[in-house]
Amino acid sequence: MKNAELNQRRQQATPRGVGVMCGFYAERAENATLWDVEGNQVIDFAAGIAVLNTGHRHPKVLAAIEQQLQAFTHTAYQIVPYESYVSLAERINQRAPIDGPCKTAFFTTGAEAVENAVKIARAHTGRPGIITFGGGFHGRTYMTMALTGKVAPYKLGFGPFPGSVFHGQYPNALHGVSTQDAMNSLERIFKADIDPKQVAAIVLEPVQGEGGFNVAPAEFIQALRTLCDEHGILLVADEVQTGFARTGKLFAMEHYDSKPDLITMAKSLAGGMPLSAVAGRAEVMDAPAPGGLGGTYAGNPLAVAAAHAVMDVIDEEQLCQRAQRLGHHLVEVLQQARASCPAIAEIRAQGSMVAVEFNDPASGQPSAEFTRQVQQKALQEGLLLLSCGVHGNVIRFLYPLTIPEEQFTKALGILSRALAE
């Protein structure tokens, strides 16, 4: 079977709206390595878009899924519950950076988690309004498209979107947006669009994922917490991409003194199995009536078993500490590359959530073209990289945190050459 043949079949069988980045097709994978159907080998710095912090097919994750397969694969938790769901909720409740007693509910996708956070916030406050931020990404469903602060490609041709959603500015020093500017944008929303007493929640990514790995300044999180407390608004941290050791902590919000009321999570929670969750203050989580939360596949037992194994691996293999160390090494390599690569405008990092932004050296404008060239040169040498950012001019690094040292060093060599060329 050839990649070209499969590509032809894909174009005939599936709609163009399901965009596909790579022209090759996966046949097997192990930790940080992918092999395609033609036997070519690729170092995976995409990890299924931040899903595989514990790598492809981690032995402990596989063993947990296999053991659960022998017991049962589905009962629908709301019909016949099971202990593993309850014990996973207990584990997350103990670790989530939430003040006071915490409760957790499980769902299937990141977008589902965010939608349910909105439902919970509205049920608890009795208010309709939701504020999010430009450059944020929260999903592809109708509510989460409304929350997402990027039009192309996510919103093109899909409107109108649910109402009572407003977008503030997210701090971004490179683009001249200070924390004060961001807070001023919220005050403008309160004056022009919605009374703060009608706002249920402010939803933000502590590190914007699709938006370019923009890290929220500590003073911004503190100011949001103060604003939310003043007006009775819930603060919701969307940790779908930042969670489970990527930033050097189990959750990115652990880097801040201020705590959110609700946290959404998915991606690396279950090592490649579809599972998401909302964790939050117990009295907030209990606002919806019985039957108001859930879903047929929500908290699937195979995915829950995988998540238990992921939590074990993160602790046993000290992946939070490893994320810090690998991220520091990558940043050093990017800093060194600046001498031979004037297109590098900024390097941003929190743990292993690392990104590099490119501008055209002549004009100073964002350069999506240069970003594509770096991606292509790296892929020619067998390194898979992802882009992001509102202007498509950022490369984000999402290698498995379990990647072997030798392979990581090899990948950084490929990256350095791609930047220099």
From TrEMBL:
Its cofactor is pyridoxal 5'-phosphate. InterPro entries: 4NH2But_aminotransferase_bac, Aminotrans_3, Aminotrans_3_PPA_site, Class-III_PLP-dep_AT, PyrdxlP-dep_Trfase, PyrdxlP-dep_Trfase_major, PyrdxlP-dep_Trfase_small. Gene3D superfamilies: Aspartate Aminotransferase, domain 1, Type I PLP-dependent aspartate aminotransferase-like (Major domain). Keywords: Aminotransferase, Pyridoxal phosphate, Transferase. The keyword Oxidoreductase does not apply. GO terms for biological process: gamma-aminobutyric acid metabolic process. Its EC number is 2.6.1.19. One of its GO terms (molecular function) is 4-aminobutyrate:2-oxoglutarate transaminase activity. It comes from the Bacteria. It catalyses: 4-aminobutanoate + 2-oxoglutarate = succinate semialdehyde + L-glutamate. Belongs to the class-III pyridoxal-phosphate-dependent aminotransferase family. This is 4-aminobutyrate aminotransferase PuuE.
